[in-house]
Known about the structure:
The complex is a heterodimer.
Chain A: H1 7-19, H2 29-35, H3 48-54, H4 79-104, H5 107-147, H6 150-180
Helix pairs in contact in A: 5-6
Chain B: H1 2-22, H2 24-36, H3 38-50, H4 52-63, H5 67-71, H6 73-103, H7 113-137, H8 144-172, H9 175-182
Helix pairs in contact in B: 1-7, 2-3, 2-6, 2-8, 3-8, 4-6, 6-7, 6-8, 7-8
Amino acid sequence: xxxxxxxxxxxxxxxxxxxxxxxxxxxxxxxxxxxxxxxxxxxxxxxxxxxxxxxxxxxxxxxxxxxxxxxxxxxxxxxxxxxxxxxxxxxxxxxxxxxxxxxxxxxxxxxxxxxxxxxxxxxxxxxxxxxxxxxxxxxxxxxxxxxxxxxxxxxxxxxxxxxxxxxxxxxxxxxxxxxxx
Amino acid sequence: xxxxxxxxxxxxxxxxxxxxxxxxxxxxxxxxxxxxxxxxxxxxxxxxxxxxxxxxxxxxxxxxxxxxxxxxxxxxxxxxxxxxxxxxxxxxxxxxxxxxxxxxxxxxxxxxxxxxxxxxxxxxxxxxxxxxxxxxxxxxxxxxxxxxxxxxxxxxxxxxxxxxxxxxxxxxxxxxxxxxxxx
Lengths: 181, 183
């Protein structure tokens, strides 16, 4: 229940539950009643000792019980570890396969592919880094320039107010939606 | 500006509807995570956003371990960015649903939980989009326009970050896996 109620809400509920009266009749009520029941014509079943005195070879039937649960350790690996292991194995496997195929069939093809795609990859990465750096620099410089003006201060203040208001509103929404559920 | 707002409304509505159709249980888990602690979700979201760049570098480094992997770096980066955007969108849909549930909490007009969730989602999305429509209306007004835009950006940023963090937190706690095992 504490999953659904916070501690401060659950404490009075737990106290109230402790104060509730126990169920009547008592748990042994049914056994006490059945001890007085006598079925006319029914033969008394001998107890184990009585039965052995009559038939020494007799043994009590084995009682069926569910096996004792054995605690099992959870050996599952974490997801990042599994992703890393899978990517490592996949990379090595693909590389070895490609190397084997290219070596067996055509070495020039491998050189051609690595030149074409290798160059384009490096160009792509270089342009990505350049663009990201330029964007970050431009944003930072324009932000710094605007921060000194009245408009800049108002905009920054609005952002801070929005962040605080949004956090408070989300907290209120979380509480309200939890109570509504 | 109006076009951008309407475009985002359509995108969020489509993705939210698809999420409710195919992963309503997962959405409920993320909402539950936020309901138990907005601060934790927000903190996790900020940490998660700070980890995006190192994550991209890690993807590149892992792929660069082999010759074939180097060729796949652009593809890997694209997949990584799609995954990040998907998580952020998932989180935002969860935040919108939770907000809508808080606003429509008193009404008991829906007969099914999915109906109530759909109503909550559209109410929450309408609230966020209404805020941006107001921004679009006052966009050209000096001082007021930038201030409103900044305010709306902050609200959206906090909402998306909280949702992003809630998804990461739920995943980290293994709640998605527990839910699928229970089902």
